[in-house]
Structures are given as structure tokens and as C-alpha cells.
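$ run holo --ligand "S-adenosylmethionine" --emit C-alpha cells
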Amino acid sequence: MEVREEEAARAERNVRRIDPTGVARVLGTNAVEVVSEFAEPINLLYVDADGHSGSGKGIYLDILEAAYPRIPQGGLALAHNSLNGGPAVEQYLEFVRDERNFRASMNIILDIEGLEVSVK
Ligand SMILES: C[S@@+](CC[C@H](N)C(=O)[O-])C[C@H]1O[C@@H](n2cnc3c(N)ncnc32)[C@H](O)[C@@H]1O
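-- output --
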């Protein structure tokens, strides 16, 4: 999901080149709205959004909280910029590192920006 429609259309064109089956799709829409109404279990949620209206990476927690009821036990939440996201990602990290919310959560440094991997 990409909220800026032009960017979503560009990403969709790229995805079509590597996945002509149409299984993978890019939606030009607000992730918070889509995940809060998603009809299927969300087995893997990956967040890399950078919110508008000043929220920046603070949008991660909004997306996660909207998705949370649909993430089954064993489901994964992945968040980019766990290392360099600064104060904006702190509340997200607090939430996923709380064992009442996720069974385990680990910061994996695959690139210099970091990836938080959390299992429910
Ligand atoms: C760091 S970029 C994502 C880059 C992308 N993952 C990539 O690898 O090309 C952050 C994007 O999040 C989008 N965004 C911000 N808030 C959003 C939301 N609520 N729903 C969907 N996309 C959002 C922004 O428009 C921006 O293009």
C-alpha cells in the first residue's frame, strides 16, 4: 500500500514486470484504512511508511494497531528503520517489545537502517 497514487502506480508497474501473475499487488491507498478493514488474517505485515502531516515514522504504530487484531498467533510484523528511525519509531518498538503484545521481537541489522522482526 502506498498512499500517493502516482507512486503506487509506478510501483505497480515495477511489480508487474517481476510478477506477471498478478498475485502481488500495489494499492494506492491509506494503509491504516486497508488493514483495519482487511477481511483475511494478516500473516505478515511490513511497514516502511513515512506518514504525512508531521507523523513521520510514527505512522508505524497506527498501522500496527489497526492490523493487530488480524495478525494471528505466529504472525510476523516487520518494521524498517528500527535503528535510525529515531523518536518517531520508539512507541512502535515499545509496543512490539512488550511480551503482552508480541511473543518475541528482535532488531536485525541487515542494512544500516535496521529491521525489527516481531512474532505474535
Ligand atoms: C520510505 S517510503 C517507502 C519506500 C518503499 N518501501 C520502497 O522501498 O520503495 C515511505 C512511503 O510511505 C508512504 N506513506 C505514508 N503514509 C502512508 C499510509 N498511511 N499508507 C500508505 N503509504 C503511506 C509515503 O507516501 C512514502 O512514499
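-- notes --
The beta strands are 44-47, 76-80, 104-108, 115-119.
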